[in-house]
Amino acid sequence: LAERTNLAGVQHILLVLSGKGGVGKSTLSTELALALRNAGKRVGILDVDLCGPSIPRMLRVQDSAVHQCDSGWVPVFVGQDKAIALMSIGFLLERSDDAVVWRGPKKNALIKQFVTDVAWGDLDFLIVDTPPGTSDEHISTVEALRPHQLLGAILVTTPQ
Length: 160
Description:
six-stranded mixed beta sheet; 5 helices; 4Fe-4S; NUBP2 factor; metal-binding; ATP binding
């Protein structure tokens, strides 16, 4: 029931994925969020790249903290206009350059918690930045988002 509540105000969910690392998923997710915000949309980014959470640094909010509210975690709001909501494991680490060495079940539980326990509020778009490859994290993300409206996916590739 909490799942429905926290994502109920999200109109469209967009996954950003790739088969390999270093192709620009996080950059594309960030630029897409900024472009949508500049077009007057309410935007959220869910950074489920657990091993390399770079979006907080890209948006210059890496020193921010996540707080709790009655309906779960409050995302970090970016910019003077606070128009982009962001949730990332980068906010939960002791230091932003700490490595995350977790096995599948713990990663999958955190992804499910990010989907169910973040109080997104009303958003036009939620952009989900995924880790490289085709791992458990992708399956967990899609499974957790299954009850909700998925707009689609952007597959980032290289010319090779």
